[in-house]
Amino acid sequence: MVRAQRGDRESFGVLAAAWIGRLYNLAQLLLDDADLAEDAVQEALIVTWRDLRGLRDPERFDPWLRRILVRTAFRVANGERHRIDRARIVDTSMAIGPDPAGALADRDEIDRGFRRLKTEYRTVLVLHHYLGLSDDEGAGALGMPVGTYKSRLHRATASMRAELEADARSGQRSPAGAVR
């Protein structure tokens, strides 16, 4: 880390290689598009290389890098908002054992609701539920006050609930989760 901060490209390459998979997974969850996720990761790594010398506390590298990626993902999402071709978030190939039809239908329903959320709402849900960050850590990753983060998480949860209820009312899903 220290050598990378001093401008050693090889050290930065090792650091980037250790993080690239996690960054891509996070960007994919935030953007819901493989190409945009790749763009966000590349841009985040460029910003990281450019600004690494200014990082005062190397122990804070992890949240600092996540914050850069989240901000980059927002920029990419806003720039490509009208051109995004949504891809599936839930990877059913990773399921262990047979997947009962009801569980698959539930995941499909959640995926549809998640895809319709604003990027800012998907972001807080991913940070909280997928990465398991505390409210303080999530707020730090987004560079916002904890109260704002909690409020956004509450609105994201309410929006997700509303999307799922709208699906149930529209006849796509019954309240029990079975396809009508």
The major beta sheet can be summarized as: none
- Evaluate the radius of gyration: 18 Å
| Beta-strand residue fraction | under 5%
Alpha-carbon distance between the two ends: 55 Å
Unreliably modeled segments: 81-97, 173-180
The CATH superfamily of the largest domain turns out to be RNA polymerase sigma factor, region 2, helix turn helix motif
Care to count the β-strands?
0
Query: In terms of structural class, how would the helical and strand content be classed?
Result: mainly alpha
- What name does CATH use for the topology of the largest domain? Rna Polymerase Sigma Factor, Chain: A
Helix percent reads: 55-70%
CATH class of the largest domain: Mainly Alpha
**Overall outline:** elongated
What is the N-to-C succession of helices and strands? HHHHHHHH
How many domains in all? 2
- Kindly state the mean pLDDT as a whole number? 77
- The number of helical runs is 8
Features:
180 residues; mainly alpha
Give structural notes.
The protein has 8 helices and no strands. The chain is mainly α and 180 residues long. The chain has 2 domains: 1-85, Rna Polymerase Sigma Factor, Chain: A (Orthogonal Bundle), CATH 1.10.1740; 99-180, Orthogonal Bundle (Arc Repressor Mutant, subunit A), CATH 1.10.10. Helix 2 packs antiparallel against helix 3 and helix 2 (9-31) packs across helix 6. The relative contact order is 0.11.
